[in-house]
Amino acid sequence: MLKVLKFGGSSLSDSSQFAKVKDIVEYDDARQVVIVSAPGKRNSGDNKITDLLYLIHAHIKYGVNHENILSMVRDRYAEICRECGLSADIESMVNEVLGSLDKNASVDYIVSRGEYFCAVLMAEYLGFKFVDAADWLTFDYDGKVDNKLSAQKLRDIKDVYGRIVTPGFYGAFPNGEIHVFPRGGSDITGAIAAASLEADIYENWTDVSGILMVDPRIVKDPKTIARVTYDELRELSYMGASVLHEDTVFPVRLKDIPVNIRNTNAPEDPGTIIQESFDDELQEEHERFITGIAGKKDFSIINIYKSRIGDAKLGLLRQVLELFDRYDIPVEQIPSGVDSVSVLFPSESIKTKKYDLMHELKSNESIDSCELTEGISLIAIVGRQMAYRTGISGKIFKALGDNKINIRTIEQGADEINIMVGVYSEDFERTVRVLYDSFAM
Ligand code: ASP
Q: What is the CATH number assigned to the segment(s) 3-207?
């Protein structure tokens, strides 16, 4: 059994967080490969090491003295090192690496050091082998990860050392030059490592006990999603839920390795499991049917009428869609009636073109009238277990009807994992709460 673990910045922010990581790793013998981010904020007024490193780069580039920021970085690591009782001479290491950089120093190299120093300390603390990510995670010169080569190198290293700590967020081009992923990229490193080693599970340790069913700013203390499929995750993140982006874990998805989102501050919580599908599901166990609820504000609808349109509807629809294409407006939904078609889109996308667009529609002879309604919100009710089951949409509409919430649009994809309703934005939060209350309990 092999578990690959990635710890995010908040799990590594100080020595007490380091101690929690050690407990978690030592609790299970299968936890043999650890990927670390750079130390994050200790409190809301604090700074992330990575942000400080970006600042250091900017100072160097513009010739501004960066000693102040350098000492903030150095002190963070020195404190962790001291309080964890480690012997690494981290202060000299930080000074050497960041103290003598010239104007051309690469930003990727500088910011990657956050993870590097953190991994050096964590490796000593756990008694695992430190492995520089530059020694295994290899990028092609076009910036794509060379998966085959990276996997081979990591497997060889793991065979030799058994238990390793490696920094997240960066790797190297074939010439050794450091290259970083986008911000938050340690998640990707963890997924590549888990896929390369064909781990049994990829544990992604953070500061929440998994993915929440709904935005906690709208519903207080919502339940955690125990299991979610990639398709559901995609629907939820598309609709604005801040969940792990499915692209970041693509390498493990390809190999069908489950991802488990866990909380470093509450390791007893089982967290959320993300998987392609769950074949063992018993209906009785999952009577909730709904996986999550997510929503976005700021949509608009244009309703277009043409009386007795009949067979000509297709032509009208084509004309309207061509117009939206020409104006570069992304169409979200196209609800239609007997003599009308409506187009729903993000309000932002017509901000500067509103009057031109409406003018063009109104001067079209094949349209009787059209009107624009702004301030619409879309809410998605997502759940793989809704498919082929009767009564779910009935329950949704009853709950909204009982609470006098007017539904402006309704849509359900043919895969039946998502039902979307459009409501006036002033009803947005209330709609989310009503839906959560009727399904989560
Ligand atoms: N430390 C990097 C960042 O703050 C990468 C990561 O944490 O995943 O974006």
A: 3.40.1160.10
